[in-house]
DNA sequence: ACACAGACGAGAGCACCGCTCTTGCTTTGT
DNA sequence: ACAAAGCAAGAGCGGTGCTCTCGTCTGTGT
């Protein structure tokens, strides 16, 4: 009965690994990454602290696994908003995806901090996290791509010293879009997350009160920057 | 009781406090906030670890002091760029201040992470940090204000649901600017630091190669968003 | 069928951390 | 001059990440 790769032992390993990750994620969501302790996880799981090291070689490895999960969770949220908005105007889709990302960030501040805050140790972004990290960006790009297909994208030219870079970016990430929009896409991606990060990390305290309306307005501005006509008719 | 306490005791206290902060800042710059340990600082200062608690009640208080210093250092840099650019075109001044902020961030990544990355413990932003934190924002606003005085600011209207908020923001932070630009100022401030944060934290790895040209282009876009005519003639 | 290599769990232990408490000594203000 | 307050040092508590060793269990090849 070896339907699973190597018997029941391997299955137990998968289950325990998942249990550790689940408990760690719970603690992460409650207290943040700095307070996440292997010993505490082991304790509530009823195992010796040393046993955890059979599953995750170090605390950083556990954290890396959680980082990938967080990226995937956020990416999934963005993709869901993307799908749900098929057929709508490009500006409205843009807003929908941006608001989905913001909503996720506000609902999972510690996870957000884990992936977009300061890198926890010195710094590290193992190559394994890259594909998961890219999903959010691609969801945003998809809105732009669809708008371009529908002829609703206003492409602004790019300065001469960025032309080569824009071409490279476009070839790497958006082969079916005009190269000139590639830098704008990347810039807007970073700016959007800057906006969200400021809100999540409390930088808007006593500065922005009407968060929803403010975000909506700012996101309209970002849409304009990439060449979309914003949903807001104002 | 006496504002300048006569005696060598008070003077020694100031000197030791400064020495602790200096050593802590050195370690922060080298290793980051997570690795900053009171014991290690005490060790290299040749004092018992418990003695440090006479000067900083807790690790977080030391960190808070460093946060204020970092805000001030960054604010000073921005203000210096602002002063150095008096008389230049608004677009050029904008670029100059933005590049000064970016330059500081790239030169002091750990300090940058301390103030704009994820809040180190659970969260914390003692009220004492607020004035220092505001300096950067005001440097940016000054460019906009001067442009407005010179009649070089294009003010875009604000949606109806933001008018009250815009008026409140303007009254609080930019009383001599049209209310409609206030939300744009705040949004652009967050977006600029998002841009810089992504670069500092390595999110642009393998995505943006020509960092300088890219940043310059993005900053031109931000200038446009607040209503400035960018320096780039393209 | 059985023995053996490998995976596994538990415990002890190391070096480090933030922080507190107590004990003396020195400076300060009256 | 003397009491009060500030200060440095040491010991100690509970916590951390991580390693090592030592029994136990298990999956597998002969």
UniProtKB/TrEMBL annotation, chains A, B:
Upper classification of the source organism reads: Bacteria, Bacillati, Actinomycetota, Actinomycetes, Kitasatosporales
Q: Which residues bind DNA?
A: 37-56
Q: Which organism is it from?
A: Streptomyces variabilis
User: Sorted alphabetically, which PROSITE patterns does this protein's record hold?
Assistant: HTH_TETR_2
**Keywords on record:** DNA-binding, Transcription, Transcription regulation
SUPFAM superfamilies membership: Homeodomain-like (SSF46689), Tetracyclin repressor-like, C-terminal domain (SSF48498)
HTH tetR-type domain span: 14-74
Name it: TetR family transcriptional regulator
Gene3D superfamilies cross-referenced by the UniProt entry: Tetracycline Repressor, domain 2 (1.10.357.10)
InterPro entries on file: Homeodomain-like_sf, HTH-type_TetR-like_transc_reg, HTH_TetR, MT1864/Rv1816-like_C, Tet_transcr_reg_TetR-rel_C_sf
């Amino acid at each position: 009965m070896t339907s699973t790769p190597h018997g029941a032992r391997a299955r137990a390993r998968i289950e325990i690994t998942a249990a550790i990750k689940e408990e760690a994620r719970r603690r992460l969501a409650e207290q943040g990454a700095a307070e996440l302790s292997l010993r505490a996880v082991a304790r509530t799981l009823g195992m010796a602290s040393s046993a955890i090291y059979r599953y995750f070689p170090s605390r950083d490895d556990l954290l890396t696994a959680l980082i990938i999960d967080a990226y995937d969770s956020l990416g999934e949220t963005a993709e869901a908003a993307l799908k749900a908005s098929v057929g709508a105007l490009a500006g409205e889709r843009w807003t929908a995806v941006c608001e989905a990302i913001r909503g996720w960030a506000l609902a999972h501040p510690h996870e957000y901090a884990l992936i977009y805050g300061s890198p926890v140790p010195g710094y590290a972004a193992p190559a394994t996290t890259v594909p998961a990290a890219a999903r959010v960006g691609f969801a945003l790009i998809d809105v732009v791509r669809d708008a371009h297909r529908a002829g609703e994208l206003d492409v602004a030219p790019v300065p001469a010293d960025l032309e080569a870079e824009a071409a490279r970016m476009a070839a790497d990430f958006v082969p079916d879009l005009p190269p000139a929009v590639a830098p704008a896409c990347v810039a807007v991606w970073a700016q959007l997350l800057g906006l969200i990060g400021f809100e999540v990390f409390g930088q808007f305290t006593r500065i922005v009160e009407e968060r929803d309306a403010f975000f909506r307005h700012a996101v309209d501005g970002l849409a304009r920057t990439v060449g979309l006509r914003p949903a807001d008719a104002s």
